[in-house]
Design goal:
Layout (H helix, E strand, L loop, with lengths): L1 H7 L2 E7 L4 H11 L5 E8 L6 H10 L2 E5 L5 H14 L1 H4 L3 E4 L8 H13 L4 E5 L5 H6 L2 H18 L11 E3 L4 H4 L8 H12 L4 E5 L15 H41 L7 H25 L7 H30 L3 H24 L8 E2 L1
Parallel strand pairs: 1-2, 1-4, 2-3, 5-7, 7-8
Antiparallel strand pairs: 4-6, 5-6
Length: about 375
């Protein structure tokens, strides 16, 4: 009875496509449509006129089609597909969505595997992931793709504290409950998928990874991915949180200096002996409060977490970093006899990264779910 109930659950396979190869796309669509529990929605992302016939052939097989003239990018095509599904609830119902690529990288078997995980874990964000860290991947994956995927996985882990085996997979299972949020994520091209992954981590969505086959047709020649431009955009998205953290830290330092200057001038005649010490502590309190609140809300998106525990952890972290700085600068100066200012710059730069990781993983950590591998 349970298996019959699961089979009745509808799922939309959303396929964005730009000038696709006829054979792989027709083959994928026809196989998917053989399952009566699957809708297939094809989004023509501004393909050339000579390739429009391919989409019409797919439509004649029974899939739904959204088409527009100007190429807008994969991210736009995905959002357009999500909006189409939401706007036609009477047709699609509250169907979950699986996004798949049109170039032959995703098999029907793997699409069904993602669907099975979605049905087993309702509300979870399911990723069909390729293994880029095995010996087999060295043989099957183009070198540029292999290095790029390995790099983004490691960078994602550092920036967001979660390990993702395949940050750039296009095979993703998105529950109906998340579709509306998915339409609000910005980014028209390949950076959209990275932003969606970051959003899921920040919002503590359960993420499940299920292994899929690694397929690169003709050394991935059919891809529309622009290696330099799109890679830079994806890296820009990945490091955006750390850039915000750096900018807020700089702003906090400027605020600290400005507050100290103003307070010391005001208190010089009131408490001549103690005005420097008092001004230092008050200025540091003002800049620290600013830094804490901005990091909490803007950098780590932890606005809903309890305030007092965060403040206590933040103060402990600040004291720890300051103590380490003093000890390391003093110890390295005694050992190396370098210029003290140069030593402090090196030490504080390294501690800046440590402070980021402590704030990310402890101070503002909302105890996120672990990514589960199936």
């Amino acid at each position: 009875m349970q298996e019959e109930k699961i089979k009745d659950v509808k799922t939309v396979v959303l396929i964005p496509a730009l000038d696709p190869e006829r054979g792989p796309l027709l083959d994928l669509v026809s196989k998917l449509l053989s399952y009566d529990f699957l809708f297939v929605l094809l989004v023509d992302d501004g393909s050339s006129k000579e390739n429009k016939i391919i989409f019409e052939e797919c439509k004649s097989l029974g899939c739904e089609l959204v088409s527009y003239e100007e190429n807008r990018g994969k991210g736009y095509a995905l959002r357009r597909g999500f909006s189409e599904i939401l706007s036609k609830k009477e047709f699609y119902g509250e169907a979950d969505v699986i996004t798949a690529d049109s170039d032959g990288q995703h098999t029907v078997e793997d699409i069904l595997k993602v669907r099975a995980e979605m049905l087993a874990h309702r509300g979870a964000f399911v990723l069909g992931v390729r293994d880029f860290f095995s010996e087999e991947s060295n043989k099957n994956v183009p070198p540029k793709s292999l290095k790029g995927n390995r790099f983004t996985s490691k960078l994602f882990k550092f920036m967001y504290g979660r390990w993702m085996a395949d940050t750039q997979t296009g095979l993703r299972g998105i529950p109906y409950s998340l579709l509306d949020e998915a339409t609000k994520i910005k980014g028209d091209r390949y950076q959209y998928e990275m932003k969606a992954l970051i959003k899921a981590v920040r919002c503590d969505v359960e993420i499940i990874e299920t292994p899929i086959e690694v397929i690169y047709v003709d050394n991935n020649k059919g891809t529309h991915f622009r290696p330099i431009r799109d890679s830079l955009k994806i890296i820009g998205v990945l490091i955006s949180q750390f850039l915000k953290y750096s900018l807020i830290s700089l702003s906090s330092s400027i605020l600290d200096i400005a507050a100290f200057t103003m307070l010391s001038a005001m208190l010089a005649n009131v408490i001549p002996t103690e005005h420097i010490i008092v001004s230092t502590f008050i200025a540091r309190g003002i800049s620290g409060a600013f830094n804490f609140l901005m990091n909490k809300r803007v950098v780590f998106s932890a606005g809903n977490t309890a305030l007092l525990p965060g403040i206590i952890k933040y103060i402990i972290t600040a004291v720890l970093i300051a103590s380490l700085s003093a000890l390391l600068v003093n110890g390295l100066f005694s050992l190396l006899h370098w210029n003290k200012t140069i030593i402090k710059i090196i030490v504080d730069t390294l501690l800046f990264f440590l402070s980021y990781k402590l704030q990310q993983g402890w101070v503002f950590n909302r105890h996120p779910r672990q990514t589960r591998k199936q």
